[in-house]
């Protein structure tokens, strides 16, 4: 067995291998073989240059003229003109403002002409004020120079006269109005010229009484029955809270976490049988919680008055935002919405034998906060149910028949006129248009009431249906809104019309033709509302509007809005 030779470091062999290096690094290509062993300092730049010409390339200054390449476009040679020859024509220098205004030379627009006219007048007023200021300064300088000369010559200087004391009694008469001013106002009133604003909004006191204060008290007997029913059904659940709007009461039930949502329909049927309630609706789950809600109609209902809707919502702020209030949700919140966002409204299944005043609540909400220059109401109905709205200054015209072919043509003509006016003003909606024009040229929001939409669709008049569809497609940004009442709950509506009528308020309907879930509602003022910003319907109880309240509001508008 041979012993392994011990390895040792041979320094001479290592140096010899270093001197016979097969490949040199790029930094050492131009260096001598003797200089490989020496370390080049980092401060010397020539050691980092591979070729001598590279050094001159980066150190030399860049050429002032770019070298032409194969892709360079050369300048075209000058071609002599038949008129000027090789000389260029002398062109006068033009102002940038003149060049800019040439774009609008053949441009016809009432709005632009008005803006240009106002700007020109404003510039003239500024120039006039500037000239008056310069003239006043020159006069003061001349007067000061004259006074200095008089002082230097020793002549007496005329002192500035103080203004005479004003008569306080005369000032009081001028503020309150002198006899001549009062006589002038009487003459203007006799001539038919408007002196000042004569529009007042109806007061809240004329809206009647509010809702009863005890509508939030729960039925303790039913509370105990619900807890006992869950025990009998071997379901782990108990009532933890109660809310009500005066018409519908909701008992919030906390269930076991292991309870499946798919068992909700069976639980609903079992609770109806156990509690002996035919009209029971389970809301699952409640918004913001994992609990369910048992919605039960109250035996002793507290009607929701219009005054309660008005005082409990933002309508009491008396803003001109075209907001309306219809009713209350089950969790005792006011259902209010802006007409500009609601678009067109469909009232489906509103039977005349129930006191469900959806249209009255919408129109009264608008009439309380808007005058005749901001709101117009048009009625297309066979009976005189809405004739009270035609006696106020907000009326757009006489009552029309829905089956008449010329009814919707009148509204279509108004739609086309507004479309042309908005296009000329370069705007897309009524808010932008009214913010740009004078008060006399502003457009009012038009609300069209179609009392019986089913009769209009069944009139075998295709022109009327096409006109209605065009109004529904283009009317919302132009300030034209349709409130259509579809009484035949058993019949379905065309899908196209359902999509164009963005806001839907549907009453009891066993077929769920307009809104899904209406088969679980009760007869009366119980409804489901769908708004454009949410796909989930809200259960609301419609407020009641009495004839006395309507008449008092109409009388005030007639006598105080001339």
UniProtKB/TrEMBL annotation:
Biased composition annotated in UniProt, kind: Basic and acidic residues: 7-23
Gene Ontology molecular functions: ATP binding; DNA binding
Compartment(s) where it occurs, according to its Swiss-Prot or TrEMBL record: Membrane
Region of interest (Disordered), residue spans: 1-94, 142-205
UniProt KW keywords: ATP-binding, DNA-binding, Nucleotide-binding
Classification via InterPro entries: FtsK/SpoIIIE/SftA (IPR050206), FtsK_alpha (IPR041027), FtsK_dom (IPR002543), P-loop_NTPase (IPR027417)
Bilayer disposition of the protein: Multi-pass membrane protein
Residue ranges of domain FtsK alpha in the record: 222-297
Domain of life: Bacteria
Any one Gene Ontology cellular component term annotated for this protein: membrane
UniProt keyword Nucleotide-binding present: yes
UniProt keyword Translocase, yes or no: no
Positions of the FtsK domain: 309-485
Family to which this protein belongs: Belongs to the FtsK/SpoIIIE/SftA family.
Protein name per its UniProtKB record: DNA translocase SftA
Taxonomic source organism: Jeotgalicoccus saudimassiliensis
Gene giving rise to this polypeptide: sftA
């Amino acid at each position: 067995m041979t012993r392994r030779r011990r390895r040792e470091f041979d320094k001479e062999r290592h140096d010899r291998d270093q001197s016979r290096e097969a490949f040199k690094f790029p930094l050492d290509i131009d260096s001598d073989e003797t200089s490989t062993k020496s370390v080049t300092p980092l401060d010397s730049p020539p050691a980092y240059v591979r070729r001598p010409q590279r050094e001159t390339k980066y150190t030399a200054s860049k050429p002032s003229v770019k070298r032409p390449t194969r892709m360079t476009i050369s300048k075209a040679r000058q071609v002599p003109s038949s008129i000027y020859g090789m000389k260029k024509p002398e062109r006068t220098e033009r102002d940038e403002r003149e060049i800019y205004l040439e774009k609008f030379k053949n441009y016809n627009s009432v709005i632009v002409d008005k803006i240009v006219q106002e700007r020109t007048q404003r510039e003239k007023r500024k120039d006039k004020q500037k000239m008056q200021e310069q003239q006043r300064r020159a006069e003061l300088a001349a007067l000061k120079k004259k006074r200095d000369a008089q002082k230097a010559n020793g002549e007496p200087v005329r002192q500035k006269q103080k203004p005479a004391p004003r008569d306080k009694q005369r000032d009081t008469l001028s503020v309150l109005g002198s006899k001549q001013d009062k006589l002038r106002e009487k003459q203007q009133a006799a001539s038919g010229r408007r002196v000042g604003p004569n529009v007042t909004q109806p007061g809240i006191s004329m809206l009647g009484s509010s809702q009863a204060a005890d509508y939030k008290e729960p039925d303790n007997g039913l509370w105990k029955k619900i807890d006992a029913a869950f025990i009998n059904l071997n379901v782990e659940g108990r009532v933890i809270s109660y809310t009500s709007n005066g018409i519908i009461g909701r008992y919030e039930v906390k269930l076991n976490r292991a309870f499946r949502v798919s068992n909700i329909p069976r639980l609903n049927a079992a609770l109806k049988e156990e509690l002996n309630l035919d009209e029971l609706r389970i809301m699952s789950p409640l918004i913001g919680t994992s609990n369910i809600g048992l919605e039960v109609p109250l035996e002793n209902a507290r009607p929701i008055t219009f005054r309660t809707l008005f005082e409990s919502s933002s309508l009491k702020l008396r803003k001109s935002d075209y907001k309306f209030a219809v009713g209350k949700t089950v969790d005792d919140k006011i259902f209010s919405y802006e007409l500009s966002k609601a678009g067109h409204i469909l009232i489906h299944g509103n039977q005349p034998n129930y006191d469900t005043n959806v249209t009255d609540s919408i129109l009264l909400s608008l009439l309380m906060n808007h005058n005749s220059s901001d709101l117009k109401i048009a009625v297309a109905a066979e009976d005189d149910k809405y004739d009270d709205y035609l006696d106020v200054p907000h009326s757009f015209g006489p009552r029309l028949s829905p089956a008449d072919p010329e009814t919707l043509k009148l509204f279509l003509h108004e739609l086309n006129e507004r479309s042309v006016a908005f296009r000329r003003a370069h705007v897309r909606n009524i808010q932008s248009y009214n913010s740009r024009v004078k008060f006399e040229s502003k457009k009012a929001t038009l609300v069209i009431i179609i009392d019986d939409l089913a009769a209009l669709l069944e009139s075998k008049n295709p022109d009327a249906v096409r006109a209605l569809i065009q109004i529904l497609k283009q009317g919302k940004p132009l300030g034209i809104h349709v409130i259509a009442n579809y009484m035949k709950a058993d019949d379905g509506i065309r899908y196209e019309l359902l999509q164009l009528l963005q806001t839907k308020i549907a009453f009891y309907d066993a077929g769920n033709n307009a809104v899904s879930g209406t088969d679980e509602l009760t007869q009366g003022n119980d409804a489901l509302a769908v708004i454009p910003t949410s796909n989930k319907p809200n259960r609301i109880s419609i407020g009641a509007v009495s004839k006395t309240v309507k008449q008092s509001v109409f009388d005030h508008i007639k006598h105080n809005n001339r």
